[in-house]
TrEMBL record:
Gene3D superfamilies: 23S rRNA-intervening sequence. InterPro entries: 23S_rRNA-intervening_sequence, 23S_rRNA_IVS_sf. This is Four helix bundle protein.
Amino acid sequence: MKKQGVERELLSQLLRSGAGIAANLSEAAYGSRRRDFFSKTRIVLKEYSGTHTRPKLLHATEA
């Protein structure tokens, strides 16, 4: 895959991850049970962890 294609794919993944984080935070805030809140919050933390590495990968492709 060419550099531009890799960058485009990483940016696309970053946008999807950010949207997923926002959606899960909203669901956590308006969940009906504490268990739902903690479950969605854990998902958000996992998604953030994965999203956090994507800009580093994008930067690494700028060689």
